[in-house]
Design goal:
Elements lengths: L35 H4 L4 H20 L5 E6 L5 E5 L16 H7 L23 H6 L1 E10 L2 E8 L2 E2 L4 E5 L6 E8 L11 H14 L4 E6 L5 E4 L5 H8 L11 E7 L2 E9 L6 E6 L2 E2 L5 H20 L11 H4 L3 E8 L16 H21 L1 H30 L24 E6 L1 H10 L5 E6 L11 H4 L3 H10 L16 E5 L4 H17 L1 H5 L3 E4 L4 E5 L2 E5 L2 H11 L5 E4 L8 H9 L6 E3 L5 H12 L3 H11 L9
Parallel strand pairs: 1-8, 12-14, 15-16, 15-17, 17-18
Antiparallel strand pairs: 1-2, 2-7, 3-4, 3-7, 4-5, 4-6, 8-9, 10-11, 11-14, 12-13, 18-22, 19-20, 19-21
Helix pairs in contact: 2-5, 7-9, 9-10, 11-17
């Protein structure tokens, strides 16, 4: 790791960025009343979103060619400082509002240079809520701007101006930058703990996507420091994602160019795995639902490889490779920079610009064809894998057809061990996937038959990380889950046909239970990810202990709670039962602690960071032994109570 450069630089400004470039769309009314509307939530997720909003401004300066260094510091007092060496927010009087432009930017929603054409060619923060919302949701915020030979400072409290902008010093004319320091409002957020690891993932991602920019993350309390700087850009990103996989080709393929003002970068490689890992970004925003750039990529990839395979005489007369055949084992990052992006929905997770599909498709057709012609050995390796995938897909199709004829993948032929619920309304229906027949029996007796269905699984399901779909479909437990849920798999998957809007994984609170839960989660993540992104997948939280003193009973879901109760109740005459399995609870206890909607705790499964999730499933369930060993050794000390 190298030291970061100081926050100073000579700015070669190609376009002026002045006070008159600041446009105001509306005020800050309502931000403090309904903060979740602007940052998604007021928990830890929303808290970290504040940092991202400030950093996005710095990244926009980097994309415009005016920023090289960004430093994010978690300060000991619980505050955060973000500094950059960009041009600095304009400080002159706004021509319309007659106050410093800095004050306008910090105190009014949708105020900034990004809304005026010419100030920024491309901006990721254009559809973000902006630094004004960070200001509104902070106890205090201080903005320090260096530009035009002076250092300017203004302080705000709960979004309001606390005093006039002041000049506190001089600076060389060629030194520019912005420093934003803020303390989140403790009356707004349920959590005030910034997590280094959470910020680390997003900042690393931004450094990959913006080749050459240096982003430093520093935690003053622990002294921990990381510098994210990747001259390789997306190639470095692919290397990072696939570091625990075995690639088919020596180096990732990297293609970059521009179509009609839209910058396109695509990096891709194939591994010996069976799942596809595609990560798409538009203006640095992770478009988890894809969009037009992804559609263009898929169309061009399928067409280009089929054309190449025919020219190489590797296909039979009427044979056609499907997109999923070619994408088996692929890892790719698609990044587009669009001058005027259109994102579908408030969450900005799907790119909607229709023209981008054609740009990406045309670009990839041309550039990938050139690559394959120049690197025929790589092309042959990829095609051989695609042909094997095609054969496996045909076997999987036959397996599906066979099970359909037997009624196993249709709603009319539900698995025999499923105890279905009476309701046919998916919105109120729940499916408990339960480990073992014993626990399944207790769950069937203790459930609410009106809306709770029980599906017991026998033993551990197949590890889908190491298997193709045809082999996966031959597993009875996997088939039972697919059949019970009713939404199909692969080409047949349609989340609209889901029979239950709560899929709840309920396993024992021991090592075997954790392994079974991980196997099930891996299956859902790799083959039914829409269940996760749609918020349908949950994990039940059975108690670890039952404490009994006289006629009183207490259930504890953590060791800390158990120790707390033992101390308050006293150990004399106190009975403590450690539940090692769900089957140890009778139906009444299982209902009361784990299945009753009025008293249970469910954890909703989310994919906050797709790259991190992919990494975890690859490490824990993949072929590479050494990364798994290192992960266990690193995190073993975090385990305080392990049942083997």
């Amino acid at each position: 790791m190298t030291e970061e450069a100081p926050i100073s630089r000579i700015d070669s400004v190609s376009e002026e960025y002045e006070s008159s470039d600041i446009e105001v769309m509306e005020g800050l009314d309502g931000v403090r009343i309904r903060p979740a509307m602007y940052i998604g939530s007021t928990d830890g997720h929303g808290l970290h979103h504040l940092v991202y909003e400030v950093v996005d401004n710095s990244i926009d300066e980097a994309m415009a060619g005016h920023c090289e260094n960004i430093i994010v510091t978690l300060m000991k007092q619980g505050t955060v400082r973000v500094e950059d060496d960009g041009r600095g927010i304009p400080v002159g009087p706004h021509p319309k509002y007659k106050v410093p432009a800095l004050e306008i930017v910090m105190t009014r929603l949708h105020a900034g240079g990004k809304f005026k054409k010419g100030s920024y060619k491309v901006s990721g923060g254009l559809h973000g809520v902006g630094v004004s919302v960070v200001n509104a949701l902070s106890n205090w915020l201080e903005a320090q701007v260096t530009r035009e030979g002076a250092v300017h400072v203004q302080r705000y409290e709960k979004g309001r101006v606390a005093g006039p902008m002041k000049v506190i010093g001089k600076a060389p004319m060629d030194v520019t930058g912005t420093v934003i320091t803020f303390e989140p409002d403790d009356t707004v957020f349920t959590s005030l703990e910034f997590k280094f690891e959470v910020l680390e993932h997003r900042l690393r991602e931004l450094a990959f996507l913006n080749r050459g920019v240096k982003i430093t993350l520093l935690d003053e309390a622990t002294g921990k420091k990381e510098l994210f700087h990747y001259e390789g850009g997306l190639i470095s990103f692919i290397d990072y994602i696939d570091r625990n996989r075995t690639p088919l080709i020596d180096t990732p393929i990297f293609l970059s160019g521009e179509r009609e003002g839209v910058a396109i970068e695509i990096a891709l490689e194939w591994t010996d795995g069976y799942t596809e890992n595609i990560f798409t970004y538009a203006n640095n925003i992770n478009t988890t639902e894809g969009g037009t750039h992804l559609s263009g990529f898929k169309g061009a990839l399928t067409r280009t490889f089929n054309d190449y395979a025919r020219k190489a005489d590797l296909l039979k007369k009427d044979q056609q490779l499907q997109g999923e055949d070619i994408r088996e084992g692929i890892t790719t990052v698609i990044s587009v920079k669009v001058p005027e992006p259109q994102f579908e929905g408030q969450t900005k997770t799907k790119l909607g610009n229709s023209e981008v599909r054609g740009y990406v498709e045309n670009f990839l057709n041309e550039r990938l064809r050139e690559y394959l012609e120049e690197n025929p050995k790589d092309g042959e390796k990829i095609l051989q894998k695609a042909l094997q995938a095609s054969q496996a897909r045909e076997a999987a199709r036959k397996a599906r057809d066979l099970t359909r004829r037997k009624g196993l993948l249709e709603g009319s032929g539900l698995p025999g061990k499923l105890a279905d619920c009476q309701s046919r309304d998916p919105a109120v229906s729940e499916l408990y996937i339960v480990e073992g027949d014993s626990a399944g029996g207790s769950a069937k007796q203790g459930r609410n038959r009106a809306n709770q269905a029980i599906l017991p699984l026998r033993g551990k399901i197949i590890n889908v990380e190491k298997s193709r779909l045809d082999k996966i479909l031959s597993n009875n437990e996997i088939r039972s889950m697919i059949t019970a849920m009713g939404c199909g798999i692969g080409d047949d998957f349609d989340v609209a046909n889901l029979r239950y809007h709560k899929i709840i994984i309920m396993t024992d609170a021991d090592v075997d239970g954790a392994h079974i839960r991980t196997l099930i989660l891996t299956f859902f993540y790799r083959y039914m990810q829409d269940l996760i992104t749609g918020g349908y997948l949950y994990i039940a939280q059975p108690p670890l202990y039952r404490l009994k003193k006289g006629k009183q009973e207490f259930y504890c879901f953590s060791d800390a709670r158990k120790d707390e109760l033992v101390e308050s109740l006293g150990s004399h005459g106190l009975g403590i039962q450690r539940y090692k399995g769900l089957g140890e609870m009778n139906p009444g206890q299982l209902w009361e602690t784990t299945m009753d909607p009025d008293s249970r705790t469910l954890l909703r499964v989310t994919v906050e960071d797709a790259v991190l999730a992919d990494e975890m499933f690859t490490i824990l369930m993949g072929d590479q032994v050494q990364p798994r060993k290192e992960f266990i050794e690193t995190h073993a000390k975090e385990v305080t109570d392990l049942d083997i």
